[in-house]
Amino acid sequence: MAAIFVNDVTAQSKDRAISTFSSVLVRPMTGTDRDLDGALSLSQAVHWPYCRDDWSLALELGQGLLAEVDGQIVASTLWWSYGDAFATCGIIIVSPAMQGRGLGRALMENMLEATGDRALLLNSTEEGHRLYESFGFSDISTVHQHQAQLPDVLSAFPVGPVRNMRAGDLPAIAKMDEQAFGAERTRLIESFNRIGTSAVIERNGSIEGFAMCRPFGLGHAVGPVVAATAGDAQSLIRHFMVEKPGGFLRVDTTGDSGLGDWLTAQGLPEVGHVTTMIRGQRPPAAGQARIYGLASQSFG
């Protein structure tokens, strides 16, 4: 997609960016300092706890668009394609000073063109819900954000057959994630393992669940959490709570995970929730393991 200045453009093509008002540049996001610093300032303006490395990883794993006005980055959207049939999108931000002028719609139109016929999943704030509905997205579930500063000393909790992940576990973990998520995302799993730590549930020589913990925002985020039972998911999350005493920890759980009350009791209260929406049909999950904790609200 070529970047151009647009002036009240009302049509679009594969090589043109669009907007609903003049003097706006809509263009692909790059990994330059200018783009990453501008994107960081944008997320800070809406009080999202992204750090620069979070933006860098998101772009490394996907693609993005930025909108500029007078050389200032004022809006963003990113997406992550998992094969030819499915993608997720997120970090859809419009600067508070530029809201209500059609920028969000312009970026969504361009992103939908870029993702083609793929089913597209996103997690919507209350403010963005009506816009996404207008593009054919429908509610399917919720995601609940749990986070807190952990105490320096944690009470005893049986963590079961949890151990740190070994290098040879990666193929089995990637396959389990693919079955539970419905699409292959080995690059994400490899990247999370590179920048963070991982743990698995192993019984009788077989891996039955895993979780990953990586630096994010104000501290660390646990996810994805993939397991066959809620008890195993709890053991995996608790493993990282024990590993990060005194640290800030975040877990984003699915609405039907059954983990909400347990997380609150563990000292990780819910601080907000979003609505999961989809446009198209999500690929079906397979196997007994399921996703209890998201990789992130953007990655899915």
Total helices: the number is 8
Query: Any idea how many domains?
Result: 2
**Unreliable segments of 5+ consecutive residues:** 1-21
User: What is the annotated CATH architecture of the largest domain?
Assistant: 3-Layer(aba) Sandwich
Indicate the mean pLDDT: 91
Query: What is the fold-level CATH name, i.e. the topology of the largest domain?
Result: Aminopeptidase
How would you describe this structure to a colleague?
There is one protein chain. The chain has about 300 residues and is of the alpha+beta class. It folds into 2 domains: about 5-115, Aminopeptidase (3-Layer(aba) Sandwich); about 145-275 and about 280-295, Aminopeptidase (3-Layer(aba) Sandwich). The protein has helices at about 35-45, 50-60, 105-115, 130-135, 170-180, 185-195, 230-245, 260-265; strands at about 5, 25-30, 65-70, 70-80, 85-95, 120-125, 140-150, 160-165, 195-205, 205-215, 220-225, 250-255, 270-280, 290-295. Strands 1, 2, 3, 4, 5, 6, 7, 8, 9, 10, 11, 12, 13 and 14 form a 14-stranded mixed sheet that branches. The protein is globular, with a radius of gyration of 20 Å.
